[in-house]
Amino acid sequence: MTALLSLENVVRRFGEVEALRGISLDVGKGEIVGLLGPSGSGKTTLLRLAGLLDTPSGGRVLFDGKPVAAKGDRDILSRRRIAMILQKPVVFRGSVMRNATYGLRIRRVNEDEARDRALKALRKVGLGELGKRAASTLSGGEVQRLAFARAAVLRPDLLLLDEFTANLDPANITMLENGVRRFREGGGTVLMVTHNLAQGKRLADRVCLLLGGKLVEAGPSGKFFDAPETKEARDFLNGTMVW
Amino acid sequence: MMRVAELPIPPDELVEITLRSLLVSGVATVIGSAIAIPLGSLLGLTRFRGQRIARTILFTFYGFPPVVAGLIIFFLLSSKGPFGAYDALFTVEAMIMAELILVMPLVAGITMSSVAEVDQSILDTARALGASKRQVRATALREARSGVMTGIMVAFGGAVSEVGAAMLVGGNIQYSTRVLTTAVVQETRLGNFEYAAALGGILLVITFGIYFVLGYFQEKGPR
C-alpha cells in the first residue's frame, strides 16, 4: 500500500522535554490508523506534526511522498489536503453554517456550492436544521459534531482525529464513527488518536501504541488487540500499566 | 438667550465647522484604521525578534501629545521643511495627517492586544482547516472584532476631541480649517463662554451619536 503520510525518525522537543523520540510510521492511502497510548505519551504532538501545525525538531514528515513542513505557507497545498479535528474543538464566531463553510470559503469555493455541501455534511451529523443558529449556543456534543462536519466537508485526503468522540453519548459516537467509515469508503485516509480501545478495535485497520514518545508496537488491529507482542501493549490493554 | 442674528458663528458656518470636524477625524480614523488594523494583527500574531520593544514603543505612542504630532507635521510641511513645496500647511489635509499620527498607535495597539487574546485553539483550527497565514490573521481579527471596534472608537474619540494639532497645523482659519474644538478655544478666548459651551455640547452629541452607531455594530456582530 502506498504511504500517504510518512514520519521518518521524527523527534519533537519542548525545551528539555522530548515529547517524541524517533518515531517512524507510514499511513497508507485508504487506511484507518489508530494511535493509542496513555495521556502524555505524545499522541497529540504526533498528530499536530502530521497535520502540519507543528514542525519536528528532528526527522522528516512526508506527505504523498514529498517532505513537508509547517513553516508559513510553504506547503499550504499539502496542508489543504489534510484536515484535523482538535482534541477540544472550538467554533468560530457566527452561525453553524458559517462554521461549516469555513474551509470551503478559504478555498474560494463559490458560495452556493459551499452552502450546498455544508448542508449535506451537517445533515449527516444531525445538525441540518441548526444552520442558522449561533455556533456559540451549541452544546458540547453538537460542537464535536459540527467540528466533524466542518472537516469532512472539505473531502481531504487525510483526516486527523484527536479523540473526536470524547464525551459523546453512544448514539452520537455511532453517528460520527459511521461518518469516518463513509469517509474511508470515499477513498479517504484517517489517522486517529483515541482513548477508547473499543473504538480503536471497531474502526482502525492498524493501531500504534505510543509510550513516553516512543512507538512501542504497531500492527493490524485484530492482532494487536487479540495477541499483542510486547509486555507494554499487554499491560496497556489490561489496564495494569503504571505510567 | 442669544437670537440667531447675534450668534458669534452663523448657523450655516456652524454646520460647515461641524462637518469639517467629522471629515477630519473621520478620514483620519478610516485611513489610520486601514493601516493600523493589519499592522496590529501582524504584531499581535507574529513572533519576531524585538517584538517586546516594538509593543512598548506602540504603547508609548498611546500617550503621544497631540501638540507634538502637530509640531511634527508643521515641521514637515512648513516652507523650510522637506515637503514645504506642496504648500499643504494650514489645510484640512495637514490636519488629517496630524491626526493620523494620533489615531494609528491607538488602533494598532488595541488591535494587537485584542488579536493576541484570541484563543490559540481558534488559530490552530483555522490552520487545521487549511487557512493561510493571511487567512488566519483575518480569522483572528473577526474573532477579536469587539476589541478592534473599541480601538476604532477610542481613536475617533481622540481625533475628534483633540485641539493642539488641529490648531497648530490647521490654524483655525475661518471657512477653511476651523473645526469644533478650535472654535471652542476661540470663543472662550473671546469671552463667549455660553457659546463655547454650546459648541462643546454639539461635539459631545455628535460623538455620542457616532459611538451609538459604532456600538450597535460592535454588539450586533456575530456571537
Notes on the structure:
The complex is a heterodimer of chains A (243) and B (223). By secondary structure, chain A is an alpha/beta fold. Chain A is 35% helix and 27% strand. Chain A is built from ten helices and ten strands. Chain A has helices spanning 43-50, 76-79, 96-100, 102-106, 111-124, 140-152, 170-185, 197-203, 221-226, 231-238; strands at 3-14, 17-28, 32-36, 58-63, 66-68, 82-85, 158-162, 189-193, 206-211, 214-220. Chain A has a six-stranded mixed beta sheet, with helices on both faces. A four-stranded antiparallel beta sheet of chain A has the order 2-1-4-5, covered by helices on one side. In chain A, helix 7 (170-185) links the parallel strand 7 (158-162) and strand 8. In chain A, helix 5 (111-124) crosses helix 6. Chain A is globular, with a radius of gyration of 18 Å. The mean pLDDT of chain A is 94. Chain B is mainly alpha-helical and 223 residues long. In chain B, helix 4 (92-116) packs antiparallel against helix 7 (145-161). Chain B has one domain: Orthogonal Bundle (MetI-like fold), CATH 1.10.3720.10. The model of chain B has no long low-confidence stretch (mean pLDDT 91). Chain B has helices at residues 11-45, 51-60, 66-77, 92-116, 120-128, 133-143, 145-161, 164-170, 180-189, 193-220. Chain B is 74% helix and 0% strand. The A-B interface holds A 51-53, 72-73, 76, 79-80, 82-86, 88-90, 92-95, 98, 102-103, 106-107, 134, 136-137, 150-151, 154, 160 and B 119, 121-122, 124-133, 135, 139, 142-143, 145, 221-223.
What is the H/E order of chain B?
HHHHHHHHHH
CATH homologous superfamily heading of chain B: MetI-like
Instruction: Compute the average pLDDT of chain A.
Output: 94
Which CATH architecture of chain B is right? Answer: Orthogonal Bundle
Radius of gyration of chain B, in angstroms, nearest whole number: 20 Å
CATH domain class of chain B: Mainly Alpha
Strand content of chain B: under 5%
- Largest interface, with Cβ-Cβ < 8 Å? A-B, 32 and 21 residues
Number of helices of chain A: 10
Number of helices of chain B: 10
Low-confidence runs of chain A: none
